[in-house]
Protein backbone atom coordinates (compact mmCIF):
# COMPACT_ATOMS: atom_id res chain seq x y z
CA UNK A 1 0.00 0.00 0.00
CA UNK A 2 1.45 3.35 -1.07
CA UNK A 3 1.05 6.34 1.24
CA UNK A 4 1.62 10.03 0.54
CA UNK A 5 1.21 12.68 3.25
CA UNK A 6 1.54 16.40 2.66
CA UNK A 7 0.71 19.80 4.10
CA UNK A 8 -0.36 22.87 2.20
CA UNK A 9 -1.65 26.35 2.84
CA UNK A 10 -5.10 27.41 1.71
CA UNK A 11 -5.46 30.26 -0.76
CA UNK A 12 -9.19 30.63 -0.04
CA UNK A 13 -10.58 33.92 1.13
CA UNK A 14 -12.73 33.97 4.26
CA UNK A 15 -15.80 34.46 2.05
CA UNK A 16 -15.02 31.40 -0.11
CA UNK A 17 -13.52 29.08 2.50
CA UNK A 18 -16.55 26.93 3.35
CA UNK A 19 -17.55 26.48 -0.28
CA UNK A 20 -13.96 25.69 -1.25
CA UNK A 21 -13.72 23.08 1.52
CA UNK A 22 -16.98 21.49 0.38
CA UNK A 23 -15.79 21.43 -3.23
CA UNK A 24 -12.41 19.96 -2.28
CA UNK A 25 -14.12 17.16 -0.34
CA UNK A 26 -16.57 16.37 -3.15
CA UNK A 27 -13.78 16.32 -5.74
CA UNK A 28 -11.50 14.24 -3.48
CA UNK A 29 -14.18 11.68 -2.71
CA UNK A 30 -15.11 11.30 -6.37
CA UNK A 31 -11.50 10.93 -7.55
CA UNK A 32 -10.53 8.66 -4.67
CA UNK A 33 -13.54 6.39 -5.15
CA UNK A 34 -12.83 6.14 -8.87
CA UNK A 35 -9.16 5.25 -8.22
CA UNK A 36 -9.75 3.15 -5.05
CA UNK A 37 -7.69 5.55 -2.95
CA UNK A 38 -8.53 6.29 0.67
CA UNK A 39 -7.43 8.99 3.03
CA UNK A 40 -8.00 11.71 5.53
CA UNK A 41 -7.99 15.50 5.19
CA UNK A 42 -7.55 17.87 8.10
CA UNK A 43 -8.04 21.63 7.79
CA UNK A 44 -7.46 24.26 10.46
CA UNK A 45 -6.19 27.81 10.69
CA UNK A 46 -5.47 28.15 6.98
CA UNK A 47 -3.57 24.86 6.58
CA UNK A 48 -4.33 21.43 5.16
CA UNK A 49 -2.82 18.12 6.14
CA UNK A 50 -3.74 15.15 4.00
CA UNK A 51 -2.80 11.50 3.82
CA UNK A 52 -3.61 9.44 0.72
CA UNK A 53 -3.33 5.65 0.58
CA UNK A 54 -3.74 3.29 -2.35
CA UNK A 55 -2.10 2.15 -5.56
CA UNK A 56 1.07 4.21 -6.10
CA UNK A 57 0.19 5.38 -9.62
CA UNK A 58 -3.33 6.38 -8.57
CA UNK A 59 -2.06 8.28 -5.51
CA UNK A 60 0.55 10.08 -7.62
CA UNK A 61 -2.09 11.06 -10.22
CA UNK A 62 -4.39 12.44 -7.54
CA UNK A 63 -1.53 14.31 -5.90
CA UNK A 64 -0.54 15.84 -9.26
CA UNK A 65 -4.05 17.29 -9.40
CA UNK A 66 -3.63 18.73 -5.91
CA UNK A 67 -0.32 20.34 -6.89
CA UNK A 68 -2.12 22.02 -9.79
CA UNK A 69 -5.08 23.12 -7.67
CA UNK A 70 -5.04 26.91 -7.11
CA UNK A 71 -6.69 26.43 -3.69
CA UNK A 72 -3.37 25.02 -2.40
CA UNK A 73 0.01 26.73 -2.06
CA UNK A 74 3.28 26.00 -0.25
CA UNK A 75 2.84 22.24 -0.65
CA UNK A 76 5.26 20.17 1.41
CA UNK A 77 5.45 16.39 1.02
CA UNK A 78 6.25 14.47 4.21
CA UNK A 79 6.14 10.84 3.19
CA UNK A 80 5.98 8.90 -0.03
CA UNK A 81 6.41 5.29 0.93
CA UNK A 82 4.88 1.86 1.11
CA UNK A 83 3.18 0.96 4.37
CA UNK A 84 2.11 -2.41 5.69
CA UNK A 85 -1.15 -1.18 7.20
CA UNK A 86 -3.85 0.85 5.47
CA UNK A 87 -5.31 3.01 8.24
CA UNK A 88 -8.04 4.81 6.32
CA UNK A 89 -9.42 2.04 4.08
CA UNK A 90 -13.03 2.75 5.04
CA UNK A 91 -12.99 6.34 3.83
CA UNK A 92 -12.66 7.66 0.27
CA UNK A 93 -11.76 10.93 2.00
CA UNK A 94 -12.64 11.60 5.59
CA UNK A 95 -12.59 15.21 6.76
CA UNK A 96 -11.41 16.16 10.23
CA UNK A 97 -11.82 19.67 11.57
CA UNK A 98 -9.60 20.97 14.31
CA UNK A 99 -10.59 19.26 17.53
CA UNK A 100 -9.26 19.07 21.06
CA UNK A 101 -7.09 16.01 20.35
CA UNK A 102 -5.38 17.66 17.39
CA UNK A 103 -4.96 20.90 19.31
CA UNK A 104 -3.47 18.99 22.27
CA UNK A 105 -1.09 17.12 19.96
CA UNK A 106 0.28 20.34 18.47
CA UNK A 107 0.54 21.94 21.92
CA UNK A 108 2.47 18.89 23.11
CA UNK A 109 4.89 19.57 20.23
CA UNK A 110 5.24 23.20 21.36
CA UNK A 111 2.97 24.79 18.74
CA UNK A 112 0.21 27.17 19.76
CA UNK A 113 -1.71 26.44 16.57
CA UNK A 114 -2.14 23.89 13.77
CA UNK A 115 1.17 24.11 11.89
CA UNK A 116 1.53 20.91 9.86
CA UNK A 117 4.45 22.30 7.81
CA UNK A 118 6.62 22.17 10.93
CA UNK A 119 6.21 18.45 11.56
CA UNK A 120 9.00 15.94 11.10
CA UNK A 121 8.45 12.32 9.97
CA UNK A 122 7.96 10.98 13.50
CA UNK A 123 5.50 13.75 14.32
CA UNK A 124 3.58 13.04 11.09
CA UNK A 125 3.16 9.44 12.27
CA UNK A 126 1.89 10.77 15.59
CA UNK A 127 -0.61 13.05 13.85
CA UNK A 128 -1.81 10.15 11.70
CA UNK A 129 -2.48 8.18 14.87
CA UNK A 130 -4.40 11.11 16.40
CA UNK A 131 -6.47 11.44 13.21
CA UNK A 132 -7.12 7.71 13.05
CA UNK A 133 -8.32 7.69 16.64
CA UNK A 134 -10.48 10.79 16.05
CA UNK A 135 -12.09 9.13 13.04
CA UNK A 136 -12.94 6.03 15.02
CA UNK A 137 -14.39 7.81 18.04
CA UNK A 138 -16.45 10.72 16.76
CA UNK A 139 -18.44 12.21 13.93
CA UNK A 140 -15.98 14.51 12.16
CA UNK A 141 -17.20 14.64 8.60
CA UNK A 142 -19.24 17.83 8.30
CA UNK A 143 -18.06 21.13 6.90
CA UNK A 144 -20.23 23.61 8.76
UniProtKB/TrEMBL annotation:
- Every copy of the BLUF domain together lies at 1-94
Mind listing the GO molecular function terms for this protein? blue light photoreceptor activity; FAD binding
Q: Where are the transmembrane segments?
A: none
Question: What PROSITE patterns is this protein classified in?
Answer: BLUF (PS50925)
Protein name (record): BLUF domain-containing protein
